Amino acid sequence: MDELHNRLGGDRITSRQIDELVGLARGVAADGDLNQKEVEFLQKWLAANTEVSHNPLIWTLYERINEILADGVLDADEKVVLLDTLERFSSRDFELGEVLKASTLPLCDPAPVLSFANRTYCFTGTFIYGQRKACEAAVSERGGLAAGLSRKTDTLVIGAYATESWKHSSFGNKILQAVTWRGEGRPISIVSEEHWTRHL
After folding, report:
1. Tens of pLDDT, residues 53-94
2. Organism's domain of life (predicted)?
3. Domain-embedded: residue 71
4. Computed from CA positions of residues 108, 154, 125, 143, in that sequence, does the dihedral angle turn out positive or negative?
5. Which of 31, 105, 157, 194 makes the best surface tag, with the fewest CB within 10 Å?
6. Total count of domains within the chain
7. In this structure, what CATH number is given to the domain that contains residue 171?
8. Alpha carbon separation from 179 to 90, 106, 131, 161 (Å, rounded)
9. What does pLDDT average to over the chain?
10. Measured at the alpha carbon of residue 74, what is the angle toward residues 145 and 197, in degrees to the nearest 5?
11. H-helix or E-strand containing 190?
């Protein structure tokens, strides 16, 4: 009985937290811009609330903001991605816990089978797997090479947090270049982070 009572109480706390987070996200994203202090405020709120919540959305957003602020700087790409995430979250136009992914991303369809030995990978966007260095290390450990986008790139991997705003961010330039090369018949694959991690 106590366990049921605790679980129901926990559900109420989580629901209240989500409502509060929606309000915060809406307020922070209302002017269509983000600054360092706003992101740091969100980080503090999430830090205080992850301890009492096991909601994956709160945890994921907290980890993402920690990564963004790890170097102490909110850069332009990070701002675009985080702002889009907060706007989507505050308008509730996705399921809680769903990874935000744009249907407009030019992924290979069907997605190819991936191998690593002697293959060159390039990563762009923001990743659930970890920061870009962690993704590059995963490729290197399997005999592949991780480098910037070039004509030698075999596979471009787009982070799971690429959003509808990808065309307006600097990492969108890599995607557009890869699409151009693919259109010219170059053998470059464009895949999602989810597809890539399935092959690790």
Report:
1. 566 667 777 877 888 888 888 888 888 878 877 876 676 544
2. Bacteria
3. yes
4. positive
5. 31
6. 2
7. 3.40.50.10190
8. 32, 7, 24, 19
9. 79
10. 35
11. strand 189-192
